[in-house]
Amino acid sequence: MYSNGDTSMPNILARGTKINGDLETEGDIRIDGKVMGKLLAKGKVVVGTEGYVEGEIKCKNIDIAGEIKADIQAEELTVLKATARIVGNISTPKISIEPGALFVGACKMDLNGKSKGDERKEKEQKQSS
Which of 13, 56, 58, 118 has a 20 to 30 A CA-CA distance from 42? Predict the structure, then answer.
């Protein structure tokens, strides 16, 4: 779970805990409770099977096994486990969706505004020059 290279303990929002408002962390966080508001993490977000987030999520990476009613912006990777239930839009360069996951919304995949196809074409053009 230590995606940012930090070996300190990740933040954990335990089952039965509810936060109304914005939540911001410099590292990783696991959500097994409820967050109603904006979630900002510079590291990885893990939403467990009992976890629930409603609002907005911005993070480096996210693994979802619980329920989300929010737009998600992930800088690197979004993983939807088989038990995931998402209503909202996802913006991420890479996504993995297990069979059984429910996703209602739109997904935008790009790297800094460029598709992988555009990046390949640029690389090929540089190599042929």
Answer: 118
> Please, which residues have CB within 8 angstroms of residue 33's CB and are 6 or more apart in sequence?
13, 14, 15, 16, 17, 18, 19, 50, 51, 52
Domain tally, the chain = 1
Q: What tens-digit pLDDT sequence spans the chain (129 residues)? A: 445 555 567 799 999 999 999 999 999 999 999 999 999 999 999 999 999 999 999 999 999 999 999 999 999 999 999 999 999 999 999 999 999 999 999 999 986 544 455 566 667 777 766
Radius of gyration of the chain (CA): 16
The pTM (predicted TM-score) of the whole model is 0.80
